[in-house]
Inverse folding.
């Protein structure tokens, strides 16, 4: 059997599958990325290593953000820029800072301005929330695309396949093996993402 016909058989080798599984396990998930700085122990050094979510973690967050963006956009379109997600009373806070006394008349005069200010600030905050979510989504998508390209075009061969291949394989055979591994890898991404969701 030639190497091109046996590329998928090569990708099913137990040793190769184990190597792929161990690499993917560390690449897919980084639960420590979800620990906020206030939750970490105080004895951690100030020079920490950069920490990012795993590949599947990022895909899961992107999925959640898309749902949030859809709902937020619908709320804002149907209620003139307002949504239930941001309900602060900055107008009342500002009025309370200015008025250090009680007056029913002044309160009745200030109430419409307070409500107007609250609505304007809520519109600004909702627009900012929407833009932040879009920015976060796009940044995660960029990271996923970059990591995927690097893994498929370099790491899949260098880390997983090269140590297990003979040097007698032709370049066409190596390409066939790597493509077969890409199919396996894409299946694993899909399974892990569906399990995550």
């Amino acid at each position: 059997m030639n190497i091109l016909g046996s590329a998928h058989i090569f990708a099913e080798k137990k040793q190769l599958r184990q190597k792929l599984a161990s690499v993917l396990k560390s690449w897919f998930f980084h639960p420590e990325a979800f620990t906020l700085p206030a939750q970490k122990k105080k004895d951690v050094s100030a020079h920490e290593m950069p920490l990012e979510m795993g590949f599947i973690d990022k895909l899961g967050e992107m999925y959640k953000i898309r749902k949030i963006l859809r709902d937020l956009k619908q709320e804002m379109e149907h209620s003139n820029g307002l949504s239930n997600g941001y309900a602060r009373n900055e107008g009342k806070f500002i009025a309370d800072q200015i008025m250090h006394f009680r007056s029913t008349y002044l309160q009745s005069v200030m109430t419409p301005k307070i409500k107007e200010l609250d609505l304007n600030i809520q519109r600004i905050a909702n627009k900012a929330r929407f833009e932040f979510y879009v920015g976060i989504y796009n940044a995660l998508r960029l990271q996923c695309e970059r990591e995927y390209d690097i893994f498929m075009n370099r790491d899949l061969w260098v880390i997983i396949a090269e140590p297990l291949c003979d040097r007698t394989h032709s370049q066409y055979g190596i390409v066939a093996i790597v493509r077969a591994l890409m199919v396996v890898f894409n299946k694993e991404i899909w399974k892990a993402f569906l399990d995550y969701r």
